Amino acid sequence: MLLALSATAIVIVVLLWEVMAPTVAEWWERHRARRAVVPGFDHDPGRERRAEQRARQLLKSCVNEEEWAMYRDLGFIRVWGRGGEGVEYAYLIYPHKPIIAYLPQTGVLLNEYCVEFLDEERPYGSRRLPDSDDVLAKWMALTGDERRLIDSANMHLPGRQVDPKMVRRDLWRLSQWERRRIAGDRRRDAGQLPA
Asked: Is 57 part of any domain?
């Protein structure tokens, strides 16, 4: 009787091991991976912040004063379209979002143009560019060769990736920002504000 119970216990243990072994092995590998030290990777929590600061300085040196102030104050840049059709249109450039085309006269949203610029040289972490570098890359592509960028982008109708309500709110913020800027320029020209 004791021999039969011992044999049954051994069979149960072997069967449980067969069922549990892959799960235990997977758990052990995940545990080892979490505790592993990656050679040559020194985590620096301030690296991304410093990269963004350098990117902001570069963006400021490349765009005009109005575009820089717009990005600094609003978080996006407007670029005027160069189409020769006689219709005035513009783009809003956001960091890591599609480029939004719209009609400034009416605020009608036309399209979203999805483009992505990656940091292929980055030896650590994400290949995603800092926010200001992403805006600069889109700005350079639009101002350098608008047609080529638009033709190569994935085009979608408004609202596919960017909430149209947010864009309309940003267009309203842009109009308010421009009014304040124009009023400040007039007061400065009248000698009421220091230059």
From this structure: yes
pLDDT in tens, 38-51: 555 556 668 888 88
7 and 57 co-located in one domain: no
The DSSP result for 81-115, as a single string, is: ---TTS---EEEE-TTS-EEEE-TTT--EEEEEE-
- Only one residue has tokens 């067969």, namely 18
CA separation for the pair 139, 71 (Å, rounded): 12
CA-CA distances (angstroms) from residue 166 to 18, 117, 185? Answer: 55, 23, 28
* Residue 99 resides in a domain: yes
Is 41 inside a domain boundary? no
Q: Is the pTM of this model over 0.85?
A: no
Confidence (pLDDT) at 124: 55
The order of strands in the sheet holding 77-80 is 77-80, 90-93, 99-102, 109-114, 154-156
The domain of 26 spans: 1-31
Res. 18 pLDDT band, cuts 50 70 90:
confident
State the total domains in the chain.
2
